[in-house]
Structures are given as C-alpha cells and as structure tokens.
Write a structure and sequence with these properties.
294 residues; single chain; 2 domains; alpha/beta; UDP N-Acetylglucosamine Acyltransferase, domain 1; five-stranded parallel beta sheet
Length: 294
C-alpha cells in the first residue's frame, strides 16, 4: 500500500516558512517529565506519600528529594523558557539565566508553600466529619494533590515561567477532576470537599478559610476585548471570594464580582452580582410530587 503523506505535511506552515531559523523540533517539556516532576513534588511535601523511605535518616530523605526536584524542575523550566525565543544561541543564555532566577525564587518560597499546604490538609481534616485522621486526608483526598501542585505552579507562574505551570495543574486536573488555573490566588486553609468538577479560573481571588464543594465553578461571564475585537489576556474576569466563605455543590459564580466574607452560598445557585458579607444565598426549594406506584 502506497500512502500519500504530502497533504498532511502541507498542513505544517513551518515547512513553507523560509524565515524559520531552526531545523527539526525544539525540545519541549514532555508530559512524562511533568508527571515525574509532580510526583517528586508530592513526595517532597509529604515524605513517604509516594514511595518507601525505610533505612534512611529523615534528613537524607528530604535532601535526596530536594536534589531530585531541583534537577527535574531545572530542566523543565529551562525547556519552557527556551521555547519562547527564536535565536537558539542567544536564547540558551537568557533561558539559563531566567531558569536560575525562577529556581532561586521557588526554593526561597518553598517553606511558605509547604506551610500553606499543611494548613490546607488541616482544613480538610477539621471540616470533614468523615476524616478519621490527618494522614487519611494527606494520603487519600484528591484536593491535597490538586492544591499541592497548584501552590507550586502558582509560584512558578508568578516567576514568569511559561508553559510548565499550566502543564502541572492540568496533570492535577487529569488526576483529580479539580481544575485550578495556576494564575488564581488562593489564601490560607483552603479545602475542596470531594472535588470532582471544581473549576477555578485564572483571575479568581480566594481568601482564607474558604470551603468549596464538588461541581463549583468560579468562572468568567464575558471576556473584555480591545479595539480590534481581540480578547485582552490576563484582565480580571473571575470572582473574588473573601474570607470564611462556604460554597456548596454545583454553585456557579461568574464574572469579576465579590462574594463578601462569611457568606454561605447554597447548592446549584447561579450568581452574577456582588453578594454582601454575612449573606446566605439559596435557590427556592423545588416542589416534589409523590405518587403511589401501581
């Protein structure tokens, strides 16, 4: 059988672009390496969570994991930066410099990141009557995996690292069903119960001691556009959730609005306007009919 590949090859614009100044493909962060990095990060935050650690001192375990994370992250961050420029030689120098800066920032922030993740785990235990102990939360609750990877990705996002933060949070999304954009800002002691179907958009801001249940969406109502009708990237378009708010299952909160502190948002509500502090928002209870089955 003779197959004609020409039509498929013609779908690649770069084959007809005489200005392209590289041969072949630029190396990119691979999905397999991102998965490896995510698991190393989970092991670093909670030693013993992903692999056995018998026969080693605790300090040796942590030091080994720090080296592993440094090596893997360094490579992935470099590839992410290196993909952004066209001049290969000059770009490698700039990418290495940017990588070193991002890594330095990450390791400076690492103690704070872990402290926040421990607070998140404690919030899960404190707010779920089904949790028997903290180890159960850390080892089995999907939100721990999602929030751990988010907090690392958010640090890298703030450091200006391209591609990789989103790849990390999308790995967590695939693993847990919880979709948190690395650009979102989330405060202390955050808990997502059950988790499946939760969406937290890029410009969402979430305060301290917030609890979210499954199916909640913090989304955009519309996208601001420039004079040419193109979407303005990065503009604030997602909700701000203040401290001590509880949002129950399948609530949808859209747009650049504010949910005041100490609010309770009931299940399945649809909110597009500001809600004052200390307000309970519920939909009217639907009427049910009961009939005998004959």
């Amino acid at each position: 059988m003779n197959l004609n590949y020409k039509k498929y090859l013609d779908s690649f614009d770069r084959l007809n672009d005489n200005s392209a100044n590289f041969i072949g493909l630029k190396p990119l962060p691979s999905s397999l390496c991102v998965e490896k990095c995510a698991n190393e990060l989970l092991e670093l935050m909670f030693p013993g969570r992903c692999e056995g650690t018998a026969g080693q001192s605790f300090q040796d375990i942590i030091t080994h994991q720090l080296h592993a994370v440094k090596w893997t992250l360094s490579n992935l961050i470099f590839l992410s930066f290196n993909n952004e420029c066209d001049n290969a030689c000059e770009n490698a120098k700039i990418s290495r410099k940017n990588t070193d800066k991002a890594l330095e920032l990450f390791f400076e922030e690492l103690p704070t990141i872990r402290k926040k993740i421990k607070e998140d785990a404690q919030a899960g235990f404190d707010n779920d009557p089904a949790a028997t102990n903290l180890h159960e939360v850390i080892l089995s609750y999907p939100f721990i995996k999602a929030i751990t990877i988010y907090r690392v990705a958010h640090c890298l996002f703030k450091a200006g690292v391209p591609i990789l933060p989103r790849m990390l949070t999308e790995w967590a999304h695939k693993e847990t069903g919880i979709d948190i954009h690395p650009g979102a800002t989330i405060g202390h002691s955050f808990f997502i119960d059950h988790g499946t179907g939760v969406v937290i958009g890029e410009t969402s801001v979430i305060g301290d001691n917030v609890i979210i249940y499954q199916g909640v969406t913090l989304g955009a109502l519309s996208f601001p556009k420039d004079g040419n009708g193109k979407i303005i990237k990065g503009a604030k378009r997602h909700p701000t959730i203040e401290d001590n708010v509880t949002i129950y299952a399948n609530a949808t909160i859209l747009g650049d609005i504010r949910i005041g502190a100490n609010c309770i948002i009931g299940s399945s509500v649809w909110i597009k306007e500001d809600i004052p502090s200390s307000t309970r928002v519920l939909i009217q209870e639907p009427k049910t009919n009961h009939r005998e089955i004959k």
